[in-house]
Amino acid sequence: MDFYKISKDSGKRISKFNSDFIMSRVIQTDKATNIVCMNLEENGIIGYHQAAVPQLLVVIAGEGYVRNDKEEYIKVQSGDAVFWEKDEWHETKSDKGLTAIVIESVELNPSLFMPLKK
């Protein structure tokens, strides 16, 4: 389980087409990719299971806790991204609610685009 930070500090300023914003890349794939939005309500849980393919959980709102095969839960919040390798056991839960985008693909490699969270 690796943790990444989605932040404008690792982004690039875009000015093309009279634009003025910072774009932070998350992932790029050439193969089939599933992208879903998961909404955990108060006391919601994505149960303990193995990742069928590499998986990236990008927290966009709220906060919660994740774990892998260890019993220890680690807090995550908006702006955090958690990466699990294929076959890695994991679980996500939230006491207050959490919204996340989940990206699944055989070729995910978030370290190409995002810095590890310190």
TrEMBL record:
Domain of life: Bacteria
InterPro entries registered for this protein in UniProt: RmlC-like_jellyroll, RmlC_Cupin_sf
Protein name as catalogued: Cupin domain protein
Organism: Psychrobacillus psychrotolerans
Lineage: Bacteria, Bacillati, Bacillota, Bacilli, Bacillales
